[in-house]
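Notes to self, phosphoserine phosphatase:
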Amino acid sequence: MHSPTSPSAQSTGLPRVSGARASGELAALGPGLLVMDVDSTLIEQEVIELIAARAGTRERVAEVTARAMRGELDFAASLRERVATLAGVPETVFAEVLEEVELTPGARELIDALHARGCRVGVVSGGFEEVVCPLANSLGIDHVAANRLEVADGVLTGRVLGRIVDRQEKIRCLHAWAQADGVPMTRTVALGDGANDLGMIAEAGLGVAFCAKPVVTEAAPAAVHVRDLTAVLDLL
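result:
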């Protein structure tokens, strides 16, 4: 399944990338840290929708997700609303969904190219650790932040445990990881497709909208218009 995002560059006549390119220290030394969203960015799907399919609530969840990504709803509140519909789904769903996840074309190549340049890579996800962490480990990703679903007696309770990875948490992770890696903010890159990514996109040395919702493409300094993550290298 492919999540509804911007049309392909070919269908709109857009170039692969547009907007700002790396400049200053970022251009001279290269990126030191790239942080990206997961659902509809690193991967083609929205994980919560894959889980909701097992609960029979996929259509409802997809509609709320779309509104949240357009910036029409508070992300944390909308996440709690969507997660509540998952109550009763067996925890075996995590392994099933992990098998369904499709990497966005160029994902592995982008990560390998960044690592070859000495750049660290992090993912910040409004999705769930139970799926994101194994995926990140398989790709050699250096930093991971995602939400965690509560499980009791082998089934999902419909609640989120601990903090929620929302717009502010994504900003916090970007700064914390840059500091931990000894990377100045001028050498950071942030990449995402939804309104909850706008904060980190604004804070990074170069913020990139990836096949994003219009509100994100309009605000981001740079944009990728093709579903090929190696296009990010064109900006660097």
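- Residues 9-45+103-149+161-235 form a domain with the Rossmann fold fold (CATH 3.40.50.1000).
- The first helix runs from residue 9 to 12.
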